[in-house]
Amino acid sequence: xxxxxxxRWWALGAVATAQLMVGIDLTIVNIALPSMQQDxxxxxxxxxxxxxxxxxxxxxxxxxxxxxxxxxxxxxALLIGLTGFAAASALGGAATSGSMLLAGRALQGVFxxxxxxxxxxxxxxxxxxxxxxxxxxGIYGAVMGSASGLGVxxxxxxxxxxxxxxxxxxxxxxAALAAAGILYAVHPAPRTSGVxxxxxxxxxxxxxxxxxxxGFARAESDGWGAxxxxxxxxxxxxxxxxxxxVQARVSNPLLPLRxxxxxxxxxxxxxxxxxxxGMFAALFFLTFYLQTVRHYSPIRAGLSFLPLTVGLMVGxxxxxxxxxxxxxxxxxxxxxxTIAAGLALLGWLQPDxxxxxxxMPVFLLVGLGAGWVLVTANSTATLGAGSDSAVAxxxxxxxxxxxxxxxxxxxxxxxxxxxxxxxxxxxAAFLCVAAVAVYWVLSERSxxxxxxxxxxxxxxx
Length: 461
Hints:
The protein is mainly α. The protein has helices spanning about 5-25, 30-40, 45-70, 75-95, 100-125, 130-160, 165-170, 170-185, 200-220, 225-245, 255-260, 265-295, 300-305, 305-320, 330-345, 355-380, 390-420, 420-440.
């Protein structure tokens, strides 16, 4: 293996570490929230904003982050994203008031939105060969999929044995380690020529996505009939419709419509959106079940999530070997149905159910399906995207963020009225329908990895 080839794998380790940091922060503060609230004297409504502001910043700015990666270059976007995320984490950890903590969380989301598209664009450029691409995106998928469970575990350990502030401070050394790896292994790539920021599109997309995520967050706490809920969702839909209309007319769109019109990418985005609804609902219900119904300690609850990571690793390893041999729909649809099976099993969970015989199989099935889908979708979305790689990758995470927000709000409402058993079965049924829809979208005419040819060296890292 040459020095250049070795550095590509070091680059994979560095950007995977960076994405792990962002993924962990989606859940790490959940267990620390009560301690944060008590220490800083935050009200109950203010406490919820610790979660919501991160989601708003991350989900709202992902598309703009993808285009900024093309404008300033992948390596620079990675380093700026890491530096900003670390600084925002230090600000939140040192918070002396609720407003200071909230500012740190919002900035974490914004800089995470710059970082993630650059991570995906770097992977797409570094590993164009099908066999290597499957292995690289397999590692990335395992990292991304296991981050939520690791966040719950890390939040419990840090809060119980150190202090809630370490759930924020822990990002500083992780960011420093990832930045050192990027400086060593990721070479500056030429910036995409002719790239300009579509200011109107950026404003419409960011405002629209933030309104949608905010609307789902308020639906969870205030109900679907609350004026703030339907006003936010209505405004978000209108803004996103205006955004798509603008993208069809401008010469340098923030999100070229060719990205969405490609059937293989469209199917991947639909699959990740559907996966997020089911997976995050399962994580939400199981966290509640283990800590509230079974009265597990934070650390024991976090350790209980480890089979999710095991399932992910198995799914990632299996699908990585098939990525260059099978069609996209032959890979994604079974993954969605596997998650549906896990959710159906969750729908029969009882207060006295055995962890080993009932809860652990749910984690294994959801993890297996998630690893299977995430690897395929992330690789497919950036396959052959060329100069659109960053924004195509950003759409994967945008789909996941919106799906997670919708799933948590919608299924929490169902669970409040009918119990989480009914909500879980409903989520399982939805994923079965989604698998059929994805199968239809991913027609045999859609290109897949097995028919992809190696691009010229000029496009590689």
